[in-house]
Automatic annotation (TrEMBL), chain A:
It comes from Corallococcus macrosporus. InterPro entries: ActD. This is DUF3341 domain-containing protein. PANTHER family: LIPOPROTEIN-RELATED, QUINOL:CYTOCHROME C OXIDOREDUCTASE MEMBRANE PROTEIN. The chain crosses the membrane at residues 59-78, 98-122. The keyword Transmembrane helix applies. Keywords: Membrane, Transmembrane, Transmembrane helix. It comes from the Bacteria.
Automatic annotation (TrEMBL), chain B:
It comes from Corallococcus macrosporus. This is Polysulfide reductase NrfD. The lineage of its organism: Bacteria, Pseudomonadati, Myxococcota, Myxococcia, Myxococcales. The gene is nrfD. Coiled coil: none annotated. Keywords: Cell membrane, Membrane, Transmembrane, Transmembrane helix. Belongs to the NrfD family. The chain crosses the membrane at residues 43-66, 86-107, 119-148, 168-193, 225-245, 265-285, 306-328, 348-366, 373-395, 415-436. The keyword Transmembrane helix applies. PANTHER family: POLYSULPHIDE REDUCTASE NRFD, PTHR43044. The keyword Nucleotide-binding does not apply. It is found in: Cell membrane. It is a multi-pass membrane protein.
Amino acid sequence: MEAKVLDSWVLAEFATPEALVSATQQMREKGFQGMDTYSPYPLHGGSEALGLPPSRMPFIALGGGLTGMVTALTMQTWMNTIDYPLNVGGRPLLSLPAWVPITFELSVLFAAFGIFFGLLGLSKLPQPYHPAFESEEFRSASTHGYWLSIPHPTGTDAADVKNQLTALGATHVTMVSGENE
Amino acid sequence: MAETAHLPLDPLEPRDLVAPHHDDKSLNETLLDHVWRKPGKGWFMLLGITSAALGLLVVGVTYTLARGIGVWGNNQPVGWAFDIINFVWWVGIGHAGTLISAILLLFQQKWRTSINRFAEAMTLFAVMCAGLFPLLHTGRPWFAFWLFPYPSTLGAWAQFRSPLVWDVFAISTYLTVSALFWYVGLIPDLAALRDSSKGKLQRTIYGLFALGWRGSGRHWHNYKIGYLLLAGLSTPLVVSVHTIVSFDFAVSQIPGWHATIFPPYFVAGAVFSGFAMVITLIVPARKYLGLRDVITDRHLENMNKVILATGLLVSYGYLMEHFIAWYSMNQYEFWTFYVNRATGPYAGVYWLMITCNVVTPNIFWFKKARTSIPIMWVASIAVNIGMWCERFIIIVTSLSQDFLPSSWDIYTPTWVDWCIYIGTLGLFGTLFLLFLKFVPAVAVSEVKELQLELKHAAHAAHGHGADTAGAGSLTHGAH
């Protein structure tokens, strides 16, 4: 077991998604790092406000799809042409046109698994516990609340960050601390 | 529960995609309400009916397993009958779900958000029912794993040139991808359920399934693209699955089966019956779940338009089959299409199919029919019956009387066939009722996003002084 690192975050709730996006933008311009937004649905311009790089999902999906394709082609060719050749009505042992349906299906299947597990992996889910859940108000994040979290290094003044957020229109500012991810 | 009293209730009046008086909080209450509410008498009554039907499935399957598939009506030459008819029918019903969620998402049709969750659940349950039939038809379902390539001590591999093995891959892929797609779409709503739950138990269970989702911007960033990609994958998948199902027939030589029109014609038929099933289920559900604010008359009308379009495609398929039978002057084909199907022992089913599939959808040319709840509900049931008849006609008429009169025989389903068929309807209904009870029937987070977009659109239009998209027509994307 590694030593538990306690960390704290300043959480601020905003009244509208627009207010949250513009506050995120401004806090990032002030130099705050590692911020995150929380909202019941994707924010328009949210990724840009957080300054996130383009998602790697398409590459993961492509990788999955290609893996599926190669797997299917190799499997069918090896099984029906080499390891267990079946002569059906004199058809060629390497019947590529007949391999098409299964190749397609497995490409889709592997790509879908790639997307699903890729999504979980990139988002570090499942993660049933997160310090943010310590705050009862934060439960609105999945229903009707728009939140911003700013990691707060220990030993510095949290009140200053809180004031800045309030100045940007936060309706509710709170602080949570807990085990780091 | 939000009411729609102040909205125009005239069915001829086009209605909004989402009733405009909602904000995030009230949408939440409306859409999650049916999960938290105690189920009413109606729900229990329906559950009783569907569970009774499910009991028939248990009886039918148990009897089949104990005695072998000889207890079915299948005979020589009709080796495929009810089992494959129902399989194709159920898979077809499943297709509307993926179509609604995937294709409409790719085309950015905003009206899909309210119905996709519902339709995807339908897909999952329909494919589960479908899968039962070929499984039982193998006769020894405990050996069903033989269909998959696995390192067997027999040293034999599956035959990948066989459409039946393609089927196994197509259906299992379809079920898996649909389940992933459905679940990924559900995660934010499960989080919403977790966070609005009142008891600890509910919170724990929904929390477990929500995987700790907290609406993080960094998660949404990947989620949006991942979900879109899954939709992109599902779209060709739908087409491929029913194409492969049609290959089961089209690759053979039986008159009435080996038609090149089969793949597109089967896909159109699948969408046709699937959308009809959505109408059949959504009309009562939106009433009793109080979802009229998000599943508006506009949605129903659009779905009826899809039914009309695919109904015409199916009619074209029939026409083409008959044309090719005449044009080729193949006497077996000619006899199958012009004599046997229309006047033979199954002529009643044939004419019922023509009435339900060719005549019925044409009432949707009229706006009055497209927007009338009773008419569309009856028509949708007729379409479901018609599509079942179509599968019966394709499979049974072709097999029972093919080339040689000496090998002809009449097929009659037995009580076990009926038990299993009605039983799958029960299984479907039971799963569906449980779904309606425990999971939001409408994709809540997507509707909220849509609501915001619509507000922006209306606002922007007002700002520019344009009166084309005022508050009264928050329906962009629905045309």
